[in-house]
Specification:
The chain is mostly beta strands. It contains no helices and seven strands. The strands form two sheets. It has a five-stranded antiparallel β-sheet, with no helix packed on it. A two-stranded antiparallel sheet has the order 2-3. The radius of gyration is 12 Å and the shape is globular. Pfam families: NifZ.
Length: 80
């Protein structure tokens, strides 16, 4: 059994994408590998869930264009 990691970020926290976030197939209305949010884009965490296989936190981040993207901890950082 894998020990669950505690979330590093909280709901409502402003975060920044540390790399380009690309469509991994989660957005069927967008082309595969389409840019969803560019590196440096600031968003807000609107929900925190868990990856079913790894039990790692997954953050739903709302970006300025209204898109909500599931992000792993290594894909975001606290915005200053």
């Amino acid at each position: 059994m894998i020990d669950p990691r505690l979330p590093k970020f909280d709901w409502g926290m402003r975060v920044i994408a540390v790399a380009d976030l690309l469509n991994d197939g989660s957005y069927p209305d967008r082309e595969p590998d389409a840019l969803l949010a560019g590196a440096g884009t600031v968003g807000e965490i609107v929900q925190i869930g868990r990856h079913t296989e790894t039990d790692a936190p997954v953050y739903l981040v709302e970006f300025p264009d209204g898109s909500v993207i599931g992000c792993l901890e290594e894909e975001i950082a606290r915005a200053s």
